[in-house]
Amino acid sequence: MKKNHLLIVAITTALSSMAFSTTSFADPKVTVENEYVDWRVLSVSHRNDKKTLRAILGNDIAIKASRANKTKPWPEGSIIAKVVWKERTHPNWGAAIVPGAFSTAEAMIKDSKKYASTGGWGYGHWVNGTLEMHPEAKAKTCYGCHQPMKDNDYVYTFSAPMTAKK
Ligand code: HEC
Fold it and tell me: Per-residue confidence at 17, pLDDT binned at 50, 70, 90?
């Protein structure tokens, strides 16, 4: 019985690694529902032109790299999420701009081999809880606009200082 069980595990592992090696450019990497909701903060931003607020969040790999100041390049497996809200004036304090309606959640995933043609980053967004990666043609339009940040591994975000400088 035990032997059979091990055999099944071995076959399943072999099959899933085969499946992984044949995944296409647009296959999502992670499938936990809206996993970014529990990620930690890398930075925030405000677009004056679009009247939106953004939180830039990272998965554990990205956060660890950011805190250690090792983001040139970002390590393989890093995922950066950008969560966007319409800006809203705080109803009880007119000088405060706070998040209003949820707009979108976009992602960049570092996988230098899989996404070699778009600078080592896959581009996607969360749809109904699932991260969907854009096909190569669309990802190239994302990549195109991230070109000015080539020397920052195509990432616009500068991780925000999280404490006063020592
Ligand atoms: C017209 C230019 C432009 C295009 C096109 C564009 N981006 Fe960006 N992206 C930006 C700018 C500017 C920022 C930084 C400002 C901000 O926080 O929104 C940014 C930031 C991001 C971030 C946060 C990490 C970082 O680089 O700072 C993600 C994730 C992201 N974009 C995903 C995408 C995806 C996915 C697409 C394609 C669907 C895309 N972007 C297309 C300009 C662009």
Answer: very low
Query: Average pLDDT in the 3-18 region?
Result: 47
Distances (CA, A) of 118 to 103, 109, 121, 145: 25, 11, 6, 11
Q: From the CA of 98, how far away is ligand 1's center (Å)?
A: 21
pLDDT band at 12 (very low <50, low <70, confident <90, very high): very low
For the Cβ of 105 lying below 6 angstroms from any atom of ligand 1, the answer is: no
| 136-149: burial string, b at 16+ Cβ within 10 Å, e else | beebeebbeebeee
Nearest alpha carbon, ligand 1 atom 14: 156
Which ligand 1 atom is at minimum distance from the Cα of 154? Answer: 26
Ligand 1 centre distance from Cα of residue 93 (Å): 30
